């Protein structure tokens, strides 16, 4: 049955005393994922002790660490083409797509379909990296944002953008090889796709509100710029990504099926 905004808001209106008997937030999210996207649990670890080698944004975004991870990732992608000149922009674009592609859908589901609000600030999330240097698993320290229970679905989504995505994009683009706009363009496509994936759970009214707010509102509700504004555009009667993600510039990586570039 679809979870409507009205149902969630009704839940939020209950006094805290009626919420204290619920299962811990981590257990509730585990059940949510198990029911709707069980594979999330292979990537996201809820409330478990993070491995010693995992890192928060403050650690993995340090220049020496980030560039080392990207270099390892480049070694993997260019291993069959050692003479091919490496391009940092498409390489970092792909790296960022791994990060966002693995963590953003689980966080969106948590923020939009669980009545309580997960604090998804970057300091509460550790990343474990694959041997090739790309993000592989995420370990989330479970902290409920008790002050946010009454937030609407739009406010919850904007909380994800502000608490997690903006710091991550800044952490990547600070190294100079990639413009943050490219990461946001990729992320806008990802988030719109996943909204479609959970459309029946959200309900049509909530889906329409979030789609409009995500892609077509120039500002967030606090008046700051919306970094996802027009990251997808209406072309030929359907929403399409604004720009190419540049992945085709890496050897042996084909264009996306919906690449914005003209066929070659």
In terms of topology, how is this protein built?
Elements: H1 5-12, H2 25-36, H3 40-43, E1 44-46, H4 57-60, H5 63-77, H6 88-113, E2 125-129, E3 135-140, H7 153-173, H8 180-197, H9 199-202, H10 204-216, E4 232-235, E5 238-241
Parallel strand pairs: 1-3
Antiparallel strand pairs: 2-3, 4-5
Helix pairs in contact: 6-7, 6-8, 7-10, 8-10
Number of helices: 10
Instruction: List SSEs in N-to-C order.
Output: HHHEHHHEEHHHHEE
Backbone structural class? mainly alpha
Q: State the domain count.
A: 1
Helix content range: 40-55%
Taking the alpha carbons of the first and last residues, their distance comes to 45 Å
Q: Sketch the major β-sheet.
A: 3 strands, mixed
Overall shape: globular
Going across the major beta sheet, what is the strand order?
1-3-2
Poorly predicted segments: 1-21
- Number of E strands: 5
Radius of gyration: 19 Å
The overall pLDDT average reads 87
How big a fraction of the residues is strand? Answer: 5-15%
